[in-house]
Amino acid sequence: MMEAVEHPLLKYLRAAMIPHIWCSGCGNGIILNAFVHALDELQIDLNKLVVVSGIGCIGRAAGYINADSFHTTHGRPIAFATGVKLAKPELEVVVISGDGDLFAIGGNHFIHAARRNIGIKVICANNFNYGMTGGQVGPTTPLEALTTTTPYGNIEHPFNLVHLAAASGATYVARWTTLHVRMLTASIKKLLQRKGFSFIEVVSPCPEIYGRHNKMRTGLEMMEWFREASVIANFSDPAKAEITPEKIVVGEFVDIEKPTYEQLLYEKMAKLMKEESE
Amino acid sequence: MSAGKPITYREVLAEYPDAEKIKFCFECGICTASCPMAGLLKGEYNPRNVLEKIFLNVEDVLVSDEIWLCAWCYRCYKRCPQALKPPEIFFHAKKFAVETERKQAFENIIQKIVRASPLPLVTILACFHPERAGLGLDRIVKEAEKIRKELLDEEKRAIKAESIKGKVAVIGSGPAGLTVAHDLILKGYEATVFEAMKEPGGMLRKCLPAYRLPRELLDMDIQALKDLGVEIETSVVVGKDVDFSSLRSRYDAVFIGVGAHKGQELRIEGAGLKGVVHALDFLCMFNSEKALNVEDKRVAVIGGGNVAVDSAKTALKCGAKEVTIFYRRSREEMPANPWEVKEAEDEGVKIEFLISPKRILGSGENVSAVEFVRMKLGELDETGRRKPVPIEGSEFVKDADMVILAIGEAPDLSFIPKEIELNEDGTIWVNPLTMETTLKGVFAGGDAVTGPASIVEAIYAGRMAASSIDCYLRSLR
Amino acid sequence: MPERLWRTPLDVEKISRPKAEIYILKDQCKGCGFCIHYCPKKVLEESDEINARGVHPPRVVDEKNCVLCSFCTAVCPDFAIFVKEKQCKDGC
Amino acid sequence: MSREEIRIGVYVCHCGLNIAGSVDCEEVAEFASTLPHVVLARDYRYTCSDQGQELIKNDIREYRLNRVVVASCSPRLHEPTFRKACEEAGLNKYLFEMANIREQCSWVHLHDRRAATEKAKDLVKMAVAKAALLKPASDIEVPVIRKALVIGGGVAGIQAALDLADTGYKVYLVEREPSIGGMMARLDKTFPTMDCSICILAPKMSDVGRHPNIELLTNSEVIDVKGYIGNFRVKVLKKPRYVKKDCSACGECSKVCPMTAPNEFDAGLALRHAIYTPFAQAVPSTYIVDMNLCLNKDGVIVCDRCIKACERQAIDFTMKPEAVELEVGTIIVATGADVFDPSTLPQYGYGKYPNVITSLEFERLINAGGPSGGRLIRPSDMKVPRRVAFIQCVGSRSNKTGRTYCSNVCCMNTIKDSLLIKEHWPETEIYVFYVDIRAYGKGFEDLYKRAKKEGVIFIRGLPAEIIEDKKTRNLWLIGENTLLKEPYKMEFDMVILSVGLEPRKDSEIIQRLLTLSRTQDGFFMEAHPKLRPVDAATGGIFFAGCAESPKDIKDSVTQASAAAARAGILMAKGKVTVEAITPILDVEKCKACGLCAKVCPYNAITLNKELKRVEIVEAACGGCGTCAAECPSDALTQNHFTDEQIIAQIDAVTEYDADKKIVAFCCNWCAYAGADFAGVSRMQYPPSVRIIRTMCSGRVAPKFVERAFARGAAAVLVAGCHPGDCHYINANYHTQRRVERLWKKMEQNGLNKERLQLLWASAAEGERFASKIYEMQKIVESITPEEIERAKKVFSKAGGA
Predict the structure, then answer these.
(1) In this complex, do A5 and C23 lie within 8 Å of one another by their Cβ atoms?
(2) D321-330, D459-468, D513-522, D563-572: which has the minimum mean pLDDT?
(3) D309 in contact with chain A, both atoms CB, cutoff 8 A
(4) Whether residues B326 and B453 fall in one domain
């Protein structure tokens, strides 16, 4: 065992910010880890990468990655990212944010960005609740789950994020848990190499806030739940990709190609300008 | 018997259930190669050939000596690929021969045994059992005594003719050690036997119950060897009273024939309770006429070898209320001689198969019961027998006031130097041709090499060792 | 092929397994235990010492058992552990 | 027809002396002529000969016979012959009946001519009684699916698959291992020609891989078989390889895989990785992941070294087992054999002494592609041995190990091996310890001579034990040279145990799935040892290779081609006729209780609750007759095995001396075949038994047993296949249930229930059948006339005589 050697991935991170502030057993670190692993394996030029995140625990990811990044207002990272992408389509724009930020307050941005096929990439950390604000019920909280605002069990039907993304028109949709870190990394690599609107949902443990209400007090217990409940069903019907205490359907669900918004926009602009000039 | 029509093996073996199997002997020779008597008698006895003759020309066999030369060690059966039991086949032939009054040259047979064994009375009583075929034992013993006397005179004359060629130390005065001493004396060497106990005889005296071998006959055999010039130093423990290395320097060669006296430990709960005894200790106490305290007791014997059966019979003879042998495999796998088992059962010993002890229960510090578990036989294991596997949930408790452990014996070899390599089971490894250990000039044989086995096997080992010690010592000069 | 395989293969010396060097940045560890629990060769265990963050960081039990799958590196949320292949110099 | 006068012709066959040797055939024929409806009775030397058949045909025409009875051998042998003759003379083949006076009479009562003759008369009387009630019928035709399944991808399976595929049939070849090739792929050279084994096999393997008509399913197992001849529905479980077909077999994945284990293909003498190919010539060449060894369990990828190394992205850990359903017309079983494990013979020290190896390990050591690169080395010190011993019959011809048969290949294999050593290291001293050298095949003796000429020494007498020298790791062999009657103790550098072959340890699975029989040795049993040596007793299934018995490569290939030809015949015809032995329903009597539908193993009967009647699908019917036995209102009976016919047989047996006779009901496939086997093996048993053949023991209705007792029979035997081995899936469970009910009834009425016996005996268990009859004879002798009367009274009330 050795010590005092620098972690090989540290160059992708802002060293001064590490260690990060996330709790012990939180999956956000794993998502960040997988993301920088993917950057490393693809040898991504950090000068061409923009990371955008919203409000929430995972929102800090933008600050940790050693690339140009935006930490935006609540629910608006996709709106910001859309702006960046349209202004500078040659940049790789990745949104890393949480389920509350992207699908509650920011839900509309998400579905319309997917519909328009804007060439941004979205990685959503799904921890089933609003972790940072104390564990309130959110759009992905499973039925009957206990949160600080649903002490008798949640009665709201949750979003199925992959189904939502697929139905809204995303060209690449995948879901993994933080235990499937190898697949997650491979998926992020795919995501980074694609043109169109791409989406990965990462089911992530939140032991301190969500877990403690739901009899999973440590990250390890939540990871064990993922191990026991996960079923890999690549390219199965996303409508049936459920998340229940017994079953978490993971895998890649959509992988298609279609022209992106910015591509069509610039083509259209070029055409119009050409017509105008004629 | 109808005159003219030759009798067949079928008639001779009418009472032997597997008579037809003898046709399936393919003459692989494994029985003869395994047989210590075939080794001792060289060309004069060949069980494979006897079997074949029983099938082809039984009349010849019935009047021959050969069937009488089997010493019931069952080594042949243990290895026979066809699972034939030559000892039992020969037994039926013997019985038939006696019943139909076919002439037997008894002098001849006894002559052969006496010449083969330096302990003729012991072997006749404990191994050959001619009486089991219906002959009077007294007559046989008398005959043997007579023949041995003649032989002794002959041997003594032979010894005087030669000068002393070397000195050999023999550790252990069991059948193996005594044979080595006897043979070497005849070859003109000086042989000194060191015995740890007060009297010579080793396992023969310690553990063979007196009802099987009256001690006066054992004494007669040993006395005859002493007369021949064998020196026996009793109450000398090698490693304590005398050093092994000093023996090596004082003598030209050393033979280790210490037998297998160390009872295997049973590693279960309650094995340390009062009333749990090792079979060898139990038999030893019986033979030294110490109180056994088995009267009216319920005795559980654990194990399936000859020692287990002997202990069970002894316990019953000494007044135990109920004696049960618990063996973890089935009757087929039992290593004890089948006829000993049958005798024990006839005498009232109960035998329960496929049962293994799980723990011994006590009230206070005394044994009160044993918890057993039932077993079933699984796949063949590396001993070639089917491996017993516990059946879960089949545990049951049986009351017992005494538990006799007869789960195998190993030699106590704490005194030997580490240059002498051992086998995995704790016995001494020897070169099968020379009986020499991995230490030059040190030879070994008997139970210390093979683990618990029969008297005749030990004698054969002693004979081989003696002749190879002779070769070794001659090669030094 | 149901035969019992009991021998030491003849080429056991020839096929060399990669040798690993495991680096643990103790003070970065938050003690989630993922690396210990999910190590397929059980190379790691929780140590007795307490680090700067008040948790027990992992400790290497037997580096020889490590097969360099690097799952610990991948699953660590805190960038506190990584594995490198030992570069064999003389006498290694 | 029913008004027509019944005219029966009876032919009593001498079968040379096979029957006439212990049965007075003239007397039997004379007796037959006195039976009702018999217009003609002859005895004839060889009735099955052309002349014999001509005689029957002429008589049918001349004497207007409308029923024919032949008393000769087992109907399992010549019923088709005589049926054909009848048809040629214009008589419906279902109007023919046989009396089995050879296998079940003359051959089993060789030494009691009187009793055998009396029994033969009874058997003829029974046949005549049944014949009078026979009705014409026509066979049902079933289409044969023109696809075949071959189970097992060793050389036999490969040959069978190629032959069938070349003929033009679609073949599914299912292999359990990751590659086809089987045992032959592991051998170095083959005897007697000394060709390189893999050199001649590999082209065949790639032919299989490429053949457009062959679908290769490796790493797969048959898990379910339904249906019948021509129409099998087979479920195959394809286990995941975790590597897609895109694999180019470049081997980069294996290089980076951190996990290793002994390679099964090299008998554990070399290592392989968790992702590997079993051997260089493997077909398919796609790599495979051993999930027991790989770190990535439960779908969680822990280690991704191979994934990263694979350029073609062919590795996929998300693959799952998949059940495929195949529809085939024929099945060839080529599942091969296992090798005996000598570690169960402790005296030889295998598993303890490194220099004691098996012949299979030898093959890998001497093979240039093997772990030692073709250098024969001692595992203890990697040195080339100078003195080598071969020990024969290790795990063969031994009662103790339960392998009583000769394994056929080991003698020649040893001779070949000894020559291989001599070829590379001529100075090596080689001793072969044997009991019999069997060099029976073409070119074998020459090879044996060559070995002797090269100086290989053959010693008759097996070693009793092997002792290892602690210092040198040499081995001492101790035994007797039985030709010289001299003991030997010899020292060798290396000992090769010539291990035998044994049935696959999991043969029961295939046996159960395909309802096959096995011989006492455990190998699969053929329908007839001489005339149908590659057919299983179950229609549409054939054997190839060591699954049927130990055999060498040539014999395996020969048998495979034969099996392919037999299967091809079926498929070329495109249809098979199924016997007209389906149930007949009397709608008037049927109360639509549905019991028949419940017991039908094939779901061929359904209860239509709305119309309140049962419906029968004849094509799905297997013909067991269990439904007819179950029907409480006598509404169902079985064609050709009708209640009246069987009762007529019972009545014929019990007409005279019933109290000295055993009435036995035997199922066609196991018990009746077992009784035939007893005859073929000339096992003698008491002549008091009279066998009535039914297709399945499930056909035996309680009323038949009751009838027999009511008419004073001393004892009744109901015999069928072992539970689980029923030819009709599970029909014999109903037999058991019915017999148990009868026992209860007998007990309640104070009858000795030992008089009714139930026997499970397979077609190979002639001895079991014979000893049962001995056992029952004792019961018959102990029965008092009062007991007989009591039973008569009890059962005549119920069954009614």
Answers:
(1) yes
(2) D513-522
(3) no
(4) no
Range of the domain at B394: 264-408
- In a domain, residue B136? The reply is no
- In this structure, the answer to whether residues B394 and B442 fall within a common structural domain is no
Q: Is domain A17-277 classified as CATH 3.40.50.970? A: yes
Chains A and B in direct contact, meaning 3 or more beta-carbon pairs closer than 8 angstroms: no
Is D489 part of the contact surface with chain B (CB cutoff 8 Å)?
A: yes
Residues D220 and D176: their CA atoms lie apart, in Å, by: 5
Q: Per-domain residue ranges for chain A? A: 17-277
Same domain, B388 and B293: yes
Residues pairing with A81 in the sheet: none
Sequence-distant (≥ 6) Cβ neighbours of residue A133 within 8 angstroms: none
Which chain A residues have a beta carbon less than 8 Å from that of D304? Answer: 182, 186
- Selecting from C1, C11, C69 the residue whose C-beta is nearest the C-beta of D302 gives C69
ipTM score of complex:
0.87
Q: Answer yes or no: do B404 and B316 share one domain.
A: yes
Looking at the predicted structure, is the pLDDT value of residue C89 above 60? Answer: no
Q: Which residues contact D413 (CB under 8 A, 6 or more apart)?
A: D191, D359, D498
Q: Given CB atoms, is D300 within the 8 Å cutoff of chain A?
A: yes
Asked whether residue B419 is domain-assigned, the answer is: yes
pLDDT at D801: 42
- Confidence label for A2 from pLDDT (cuts 50, 70 and 90): very low
Q: How far is CA D253 from the centre of its chain?
A: 43
Asked whether residue D612 carries a pLDDT value surpassing 90, the answer given is: no
Q: In this structure, what token pair is assigned to residue B165?
A: 């060629």
pLDDT at res. D1: 45
A247: how many CB neighbours lie within 10 A of its CB? Answer: 12
C-alpha span between A254 and A256 (Å, rounded)? 6
Do B169 and B78 fall into the same domain?
A: no
Q: What is the pLDDT of residue D722?
A: 87
Contacts of A179 in chain D (CB under 8 A): 300
Share of chain D above pLDDT 90, in %: 85
pLDDT tens for A149-201 read: 999 999 999 999 999 999 999 999 999 999 999 999 999 999 999 999 999 99
Question: Average per-residue pLDDT in chain D?
Answer: 93
Please report how many Cα atoms fall inside a 13 Å half-sphere around the Cα of residue D179, on the Cβ side: 27
Domain for residue B182, yes or no? yes
Per-residue pLDDT of B235-266, as tens digits, reads: 999 999 999 999 999 999 999 999 998 888 88
Q: Which residue, chain included where needed, has tokens 């012709």? A: D9
Q: What is the mean pLDDT of residues D253-268?
A: 93
Domains of chain C plus CATH, in order, are: 19-85 (3.30.70.20)
CATH number at residue B451: 3.50.50.60
Is the Cα torsion angle A149, A151, A157, A159 positive or negative in sign? positive
Residue-range domains of chain D with CATH: 1-137 (3.40.50.920), 140-239+321-336+504-574 (3.50.50.60), 242-319 (3.30.70), 341-499 (3.50.50.60), 583-637 (3.30.70.20), 641-801 (3.40.50)
Q: Are residues B318 and B369 in the same domain?
A: yes
Same-domain check for residues B15 and B58 = yes
User: Which of A209-218, B55-64, D410-419 is the most confident on average?
Assistant: D410-419
Query: Which among B408, B425, B441 is the end of a domain?
Result: B408
- Between B424 and B183, the more confident residue is B183
| Cβ proximity of D679 and D716 under 8 Å | no
DSSP run (H or E) holding D228: strand D220-228
Crossing angle of the two packed helices D643-653 and D702-710, in degrees rounded to 10: 30
Which of B361, B392, B408 represents a domain boundary (last residue)?
B408
Is residue B361 in a domain?
Answer: yes
- pLDDT of amino acid B162: 60
Spatial separation of the C-alpha atoms in residues D443 and D447, rounded to whole Å: 6
A92: helix, strand or coil: strand
